[in-house]
Amino acid sequence: MPLTTDPDTITHAIQLAVAPVFLLTAVSGMIGAVAGRLARIIDRARFVEERAHLSEDEAVVQRAHIELAELRNRGRLANGCIALLTTCAFLIGLTIILLFLSETTGAQSSRWAVGSFLTGVACFLLALLCFLAETLIATRLLNFRVRRVSASAPMSK
Q: Is the N or C terminus of the chain more exposed, i.e. has fewer CB atoms within 10 Å?
């Protein structure tokens, strides 16, 4: 399977292989966003754990355990999201390689390229679902805190 040196074929191969790179930009942006959320989840969990360890009030410790369980679920979703996004990036990179080799060597790898691209897109969609679930849990927890604070605040005239 010799590699062609025809400039037109090489140019066309690069054009064909570069198209999936745009998805890599979206994936890298998502990884950055989810990694930031994961860092905030971890920071909040450390704060809640420390507050629970220092407190002798059983109600505070009980609330801390409930919040830590929610944070653990959010962390799992964020980690799953990052794993899916990383898998997506790998598969898109593989797609680029397969498309380039298919175009420049005549190898019959286009079927593999389609499979790797579609699997990568499926991973991206699943990652978006994980991200949505994590943000819904975070919002639900926020709404619970706001209601609890509003209910315990004294009425002012």
A: C
